[in-house]
Amino acid sequence: MRIVNGTCPFPRGKAVGGTTISNGLAYVRGHPIDFDRWSDMGNPGWSYEDVLPYFKKSEDFHRNNPLAPVDFNYHGTGGYLSVEYHLPPSRYLAAFLNANQELGYKLTDYNSPEQIGASPVQQNTKHGRRADGGSAFILPILNRTNLKVMTDSFVIKLHINEDTKKVAGVYFSYKGKIHIAKPRKEVIISAGAISSPQLLLLSGIGPKDHLNEMQIPVIQNLEVGSTLRDHSQYYGLTFASNISLPSQPLSNYIEEYLKGVGPFTISGPNDGIGFYQTSFEKTANYPDLELVIISPNATSTFFKDTFGWNDDTYDATWGGIDVSSSFSIYIINLHQLSVGSVKLKSNSPYDYPLIDANFLSDPNNRDIQVLYEGIQFVLKLTATDAFKTIGAKFQAKPLPACKEFEAFSKDYWYCSLRQLTFDVYHPVGTCPMGPDSNSGAVVDNKLKVYGITNLRVADSSVFPFTLSGHPNAPCVMIGEKVSDLIKEQYNRL
């Protein structure tokens, strides 16, 4: 039985509950060192050599941009998940790639072991249309007799026998009534890094002090929700350019979309992406910094609404900018050290959990220093001849919140980082994998929850740390891998 209330795709099996399943936008697996570290922490079966076949198995890769750097040894075809490039390439992308080469970085396939460098974005679209997890993995198999998908359902609690510590059923709401689904063998939770810990906590699996505070009987004392990790992203670098995008009739855009090209096929970071190693990462050839160039910035007001910027902050970042000819470069700290948490607000499944990302809180301030080094690199990158050809000019004005500091000094940038660093929606690590539950692990290397005989978690919550990539591709890998773990358990592999 599969529980999905969240956003990680799940493998081919039975499902209960859930909202729309969707992947992220850019398809970025991470560096081989990530997975070798994962294995070396006491998790056999999760090295790069172990997981690469699962990445390739799920992938249907299309090199629809013949100029994109590709190492076909690390890609698969014929899988459920489409991976391709946005077309046509933009002038912003050309400037970004040329600027990287000007500074000595090569063009690379970042889903190969040679991740450091720049590339057009590999994204989960198929003929220009978004290829989310639901359309990729579920829609093609809806007629299978061993699959039942119930939309508009909401899983609220696991029914666990307190004596045997075995999951006897899953309570979920559907059409105004509470139902229970009883597993024949086991239950697999894939509700994401926020909802998976929430569901475990509601079911009595979590830190005993927190469960006692919420008046929930303790079934298993585990550090569920205690280690929320995420990639922090700085949103404060906006630039003007001399590129003016032509306006066309709506019918032209629709015609392009139907051909799989044009602006209607853009899904997020459609331009360039790059991976770099800062002075703080001591492992050779291991990227800890990501840059993404986004253009044009017609969705700038999204950030004001989403992150709650006041008018002064918004005007300093976007005021007076022609969004139709502007671009941003986002800076992402990949090896996040700051640790947050996911806790219950109450013992009601209908209350949103309390999420504390706790960004830029690591005691040695490495996270903010990595982002500051990223700012300096972006300013250097946009000063190259390649960016001068498109008239790139830094546009943001000093933030009123940082007026006590000299504009664009180091102290100013540190202040700005604390004002404009937010979520990039890559939460992981709230049910981490590890060999010892006494050291904070929630699941073992088979994704089984410690102390519960028939329960697994299979989503980004099991990541033991943030990867040098985005969670969606590793989530798909986990889905493929847990399918084999289940088959192996019951001699079906």
UniProtKB/TrEMBL annotation:
Record carries keyword Metal-binding: no
Domain of life: Eukaryota
Residues covered by the Glucose-methanol-choline oxidoreductase N-terminal domain: 192-206
Phosphoprotein as UniProt keyword: no
Regions crossing the membrane: none
Molecular function terms, GO-annotated: flavin adenine dinucleotide binding; oxidoreductase activity, acting on CH-OH group of donors
Keywords for this protein: FAD, Flavoprotein
Cofactors required: FAD
Signal peptide: none
Binding positions for FAD per the UniProt entry: 19, 155
InterPro entries for the chain: FAD/NAD-bd_sf, GMC_OxRdtase, GMC_OxRdtase_N, GMC_OxRtase_C
Active site as annotated: 426 (proton donor), 470 (proton acceptor)
Name of one Pfam family that matches: GMC_oxred_N
Family that this chain belongs to: Belongs to the GMC oxidoreductase family.
Protein name listed in UniProt: Glucose-methanol-choline oxidoreductase N-terminal domain-containing protein
